[in-house]
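Lesson 9: reading folded outputs for more than one chain in a single document. The general rule is that every protein is listed as its sequence immediately followed by its structure tokens, and records are never interleaved. Here is the first one.
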Amino acid sequence: MKNSHGKVLLILLIFLHVEIFASTYEWSATASKNKAYVNEAIHLSYICRFSDDAELYSIEFNPDGDYENYTIKLLTKSERLINNKKVNSYEFVAFIKKSIDVDFAFDTVMKKTNKDSIKNTVLGRDNASYEEYTKTKIKQKNLHVEVVKTDIALVGNLVLEVKKDTPHVKAYEPYHMEIIIKGEGNLDEIKPLEFKIDNVKVFAGKVIKDIQLTKDGYSGILSQKFAFVGSEEFIIPKLNIKYVNLKLKKEDALVVNAVKVEVEKGFKAEELLDKADEDFKINYEYFYYFFAFVLGFLISKIKLKKPKKQLLEDEAFKEKVKNTDSLGELSVILALKDRKKYEKLILEIETKKATNINKIKKEIGLI
């Protein structure tokens, strides 16, 4: 009996506290800019400040997603007590996809625990029929953003770095180049770069991304490697990567200058094989590239299976080797990965000494 009276008294005290000291709250919403280019990052901040610790309240608010005119990415969210008052913060990054003004106006649901829920929790009634929460839907402050029209997809503050070999190679020896883009913007949307040069075989690696989301967009580094193989002098054409320069507030370009590559006469395939019998100092890479160049139209038909997930470079190499069932394709993969390390296997493939692809994979250590 005394226990029952104690529970009743506790319920009365809770109800009295809830009625007299009911929590109130106030929302604020801000956008980092009211005018932006298409694909420019816009930082959205939403803060809910309660009058106390608001133990009975929870919030449903997550506009993260891909919409018709824009994309919203969650940056951070937090719940803190400041001077014993609860503060809920939400930060998002928006990217407008079309040349049309946008109003960011999201719904939020405030959930408050009901008296029946408190009473049944205190009394231990698990099967009582009642609404656990009272839900109130509110509309966040409308944030209007005017869009500056542009047909250029890439937007941000960017710098370019190009790493390249000395422009003098032997016939069928690869000339290497790496293009690196650093900065912040919509870097997650950048497309692979392409070069097309007559009578030159171009090997293009995938775009390697090391980026993370910030209030100013995706920040970090993008890189892509290339190898150019030819039998005579060639020119790698100038490449302009157009983008909107947010610092200068205008259209700009990252420029990869043209490169003239001198090519000296190399070895013939039969010469490589003859010298291989005399000594072991020959670089069999030349023979491989000769074979790959002559059969370029076949190599171009090879479809490497892409890994399902973003993998590190070594993992991507292993995945490609595992997936291939063609010796010709395997020789290309090995040469692009590390021609010196795998030159023995490459030569065995090209001279038809190796015919069992599973045996080669075993030597590589992938079986």
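And here is the second record, again sequence then tokens.
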Amino acid sequence: MTNTSLYIVTDDQEQAQRIKNFGMGMGCKVEVYTTAKWAEKNQMGSESSSQELPFLSAGSQTVDPEGGKVLQFRQPQAAPAEDNTVKTINELESIAIEKAISEFGGNLTEAAKALGIGRATLYRKVKQYGIDPSQARRQKAAAKAA
């Protein structure tokens, strides 16, 4: 079993929380640092040297990786609004569940982890909203065949 760690270095707490939630949903060990704390950690040393870690950065300022490779990535762009109507909580929940199931190719266990709910809860919600996970599995199989 692979043990994956995700280190987040940012002073933007909102962005850090979104990335942390994503990483934890993917089963990663997640550590969040401000730029000052990260620099302090690197000066004192740690169990894993920062030079061994790949770096991803966004924005205009990055933490000096002391020789590490810095990979730039784009900020997510706002998706175009589909419509301006207010959706109910149930509609939003249904959309989130459908997206998660699609993202994980119909694997309900992984979709439940990403959503932060139990597998039994996801099964109940799938039945409640009439969602067909096998459709995502078929799309995944078709993509592999292509």
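What the second record shows: The chain has two domains: 5-72, 89-145.
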